[in-house]
């Protein structure tokens, strides 16, 4: 690990020599060798021939030295070490590397029985209602060179009481997570109290909130734009929901800092059962050093909290850089804060009916800072095509493994950064995507030509299955009215099929209706499924999927918000197929389904004429996703088609309202405002770990319909 350096003497500042401690192997077991690596730079005009000395202890003692010869303007690396003494108790002591008048310092730790571990509270499920189960998830990191086993305890309350514990084993230089919890007691009034995760020597603490009763307007922080540079506007987006049976009007306030100060607020009125999002924020102060501090959003009877970061003027922000070293790998380097999501999209080819069939995914593989990795994160996130979806830590950062969706091949087509995640827009397209996909398609066609005879034999012995094709909906419908989806079911194979067919809706899929059907071999049947839509103020569009055990079909439907008039036309099913280019389709969405915009430069439209679909391939209705060739050139600009709200339920929230500009807070020496002009956050640490964002919220923002991955059965 990179040790912290300290200020050096005036003499060092005048010398042409500079020394920097690069790393140590601390902590080490008592009696083991402590190793220190340092870099020495000759900033002068003459060669130097001197010695680097290792000094340790509160009573400084020289324990090692190495000769150093360096040419002008060059650097050299020196390795120093010594065998630590046998001690009875764990000890921490200072370590210096001295070269002439230049010096750098860090600290080392020697342990007797078990190596120390770092403990961080990652998230909790608070606030919870009295009597519900409260969970606390913590990260346990072992930075030593040997495995350790610790009893991890959850201690709660102002009068501390242990409520849960678990034995955890952590390998050398590894980390793990543990979730502990307890059943909260029945209370008469809302209570806020500390929860601590303890390992015997290390402790991490944060405050949690338990409501006596279900709050009228629960508050959830959806996202922030942190980290931001000092002096920039920090924005917090929250989601509110009225759980009462009548309209409510409440003031929503943003409170920041370890010395809490309200910096913004908005008066919000909500009808019964409705949700909406609100954006609050403030202009951060100009500070020299990077600061982390809590932000809190409060309604009259609820609150949510998160930790944010402001980058100091002395700490240059890391510019986000996206590269595509290959067809199957993308690298994203930068600094990201809690709640930030970075996602990958793909294009792929499946083999069906003897011909390659194109499909894609939009932001189905992502990483959320605060859930998958501790916030803030500075480093490189690697997305790479592999075998299964996973997120893992590497020496250089984080690796996100993206499943190989296509039988013939899968390509990373683009990366979405946090600023575009909410609108499901690809921020950076892969410039190699078109040629990579062409190569996959060509290889698939060559293979199909040699396998025609085998395919014919396989068709004769095809197993029984139930294919699904949506033929129409009654969308658009008014919010609160009944939405119907009609599908045609067809059996393949030589056996009778009995299955349950389900209607699944929303970006956070939810089954709302189902029906059991039995079909004889080679027959078809029409089934109509539906449900009563939720009340919502604003018109929303979302996917509706009909699924059997073997197949599925999806259609984008529209629910018109209260106060708006629905389109009189309904969805009567797919239009007849034509040989026209997809780019020539009209923008008029007469059947309530999304149509792709005629932009010849976008990477979401195939550049070539669509292939004729085989009889046994998936349905080629407009909403089933692209079945044409992928584009020659990806689009690095915004995805103009992805306009869906990230909400998961049909009662989509209204558009975010901009916050009122708060009075300019004190900006002389801290990132958060201070009414007294003092430094509220100077030297502050993250005392209240954030709750983080629910992974479901990340999934809510995926644009499905035409851009959702086709599932080929």
Automatic annotation (TrEMBL):
Positions with biased composition (Basic and acidic residues): 538-547
Region entry Disordered, spans: 427-461, 533-713
InterPro entries in the cross-refs: Ig-like_fold
Compositionally biased residues, Acidic residues: 439-461, 565-673, 684-705
Protein name: CARDB domain-containing protein
Species this chain originates from: Natronorubrum halalkaliphilum
